[in-house]
Recover the amino acids of this structure.
């Protein structure tokens, strides 16, 4: 592992770095944008009412269908609180929430039936519909100044997690997600067809927003609160822009934005105040990730603010399909409730090649650990799949106020690939600290 001061880098490193960041700009330019006709479909024109106890699911569906049939436009949610079940977007439809509009989602799981093809912690199954879902649609949007309210709480959705941190709910083993999670993962490892991965008793909380195999996706300016599970989770999608979104949810697995096996993604000017990772890039779990073999790639993260969370910018742990060409810049990460700034987590059960990762101009203030690289996450060194890192460059990290600047479980220099490196520059206020006690084991794992 190469550690170098900012003023000690040679010209060759600087020139190479600038070439890589030109690639980041090229990725942004290559993203195909959404475009919607200038026609509006007001949900109240289709029977929606901002009345307590009134179910607007059918009215919203009718407005979306009409908008799609007309060739596209905006489905508008006006000011007021509208209760609803699952919302399924269609091509050329922009779900637009006006200021003071609240789309409030039911917490009864029956509102998210019938089952749809979805992905849960990197494994495909037939499961509950995400609160907002789109399958194989193109040119879709969720925009506006309104609020998407998931109503997750210590009494709704979140208790399905089971044991969690201080567990602020009464544990009930009959609704623990392990009852579904464990057999699902076993079926995936055994190669069971996805059509057979469905459960009458299902305690896997749905993600909030999940475009699945979609093209040209825009999520802009809305506030997302109290999600049952992950907040923004595009899967196997292309040309995704997440811009100006406020992600505020402090429940279990309240990851802010988790692109999985996506290509050409821009995440910018967002606020993350979450109960888990702020941004986590993923590409499938174990056998299921290798079956689809689709990396998360060509992603740019910029100008975001990370407050509470397990990690600011994270790769993994469901990274079996690999990750490449990932760029993050000009982000601020600081909170007494933020555990880590930059985090890479995988293991030899997950496998996957993580390559061409460039992170710079990151201001890390109050965190527990600024950088954590862990190649022994969760199951540890228990598998036969090489977890490899190549060309991982983290630079200009400054302002660490709390514990370690760097904490490493696996040392990237154990994998001697051409161009393999992890560099950190301009660490101030605290010396670089490294934990090498897993050195011998990491060399063993990385050299398989």
């Amino acid at each position: 592992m190469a550690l170098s001061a900012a003023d000690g880098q040679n010209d060759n490193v600087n020139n190479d770095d600038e070439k890589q960041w030109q690639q980041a700009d090229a990725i942004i330019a290559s993203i195909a944008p959404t475009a919607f006709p200038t026609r509006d479909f007001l949900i109240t024109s289709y029977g929606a009412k901002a009345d307590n106890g009134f179910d607007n699911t059918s009215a919203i569906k009718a407005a979306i269908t009409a908008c799609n049939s007309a060739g596209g436009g905006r489905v508008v949610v006006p000011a007021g609180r509208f209760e609803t079940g699952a919302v399924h977007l269609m091509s050329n439809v922009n779900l637009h929430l006006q200021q003071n509009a609240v789309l409030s989602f039911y917490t009864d799981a029956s509102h998210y039936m019938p089952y749809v093809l979805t992905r849960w912690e990197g494994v495909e199954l037939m499961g509950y519909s995400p609160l907002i879902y789109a399958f194989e649609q193109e040119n879709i949007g969720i925009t506006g100044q309104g609020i998407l309210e998931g109503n997750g709480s210590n009494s709704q959705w979140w208790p399905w997690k089971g044991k969690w941190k201080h567990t602020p709910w009464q544990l009930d083993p009959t609704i623990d997600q392990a009852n579904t999670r464990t057999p699902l993962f076993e079926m995936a490892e055994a190669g069971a067809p996805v059509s057979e991965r469905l459960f009458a008793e299902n305690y896997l909380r749905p993600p909030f927003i999940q475009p699945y195999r979609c093209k040209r996706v825009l999520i802009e300016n809305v506030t997302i609160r109290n999600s049952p599970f992950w907040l923004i989770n595009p899967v196997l999608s292309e040309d995704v822009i997440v811009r100006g979104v406020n992600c505020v949810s402090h429940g279990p697995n309240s990851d802010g934005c988790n692109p999985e096996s996506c290509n050409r993604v821009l995440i910018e000017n967002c606020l993350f105040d979450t109960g888990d990772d702020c941004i986590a890039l993923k590409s499938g779990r174990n056998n299921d990730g290798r079956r689809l073999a689709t990396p998360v790639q060509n992603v740019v993260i910029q100008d975001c603010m990370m407050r509470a969370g397990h990690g600011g910018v994270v790769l993994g742990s469901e990274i079996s399909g690999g990750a490449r060409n990932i760029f993050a810049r000009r982000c601020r990460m600081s909170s007494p409730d933020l555990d880590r700034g930059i985090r890479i987590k995988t293991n030899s059960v997950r496998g996957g090649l993580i390559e061409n990762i460039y992170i710079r101009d990151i201001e890390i203030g109050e965190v527990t650990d600024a950088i954590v690289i862990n190649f022994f996450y969760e199951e540890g060194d228990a598998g036969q799949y090489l977890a490899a890192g190549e060309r991982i460059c983290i630079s200009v990290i400054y302002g660490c106020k709390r514990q370690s600047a760097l904490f490493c479980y696996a040392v990237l220099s154990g994998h001697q690939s051409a161009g393999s490196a992890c560099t950190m520059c301009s660490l101030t206020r605290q010396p670089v600290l490294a934990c090498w006690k897993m050195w011998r084991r990491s060399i063993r794992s990385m050299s398989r």
Q: What stands out?
A: Helices lie at 11-30, 57-69, 178-189, 286-292, 439-446. Confidence is low (pLDDT under 50) at residues 1-9, 408-448.
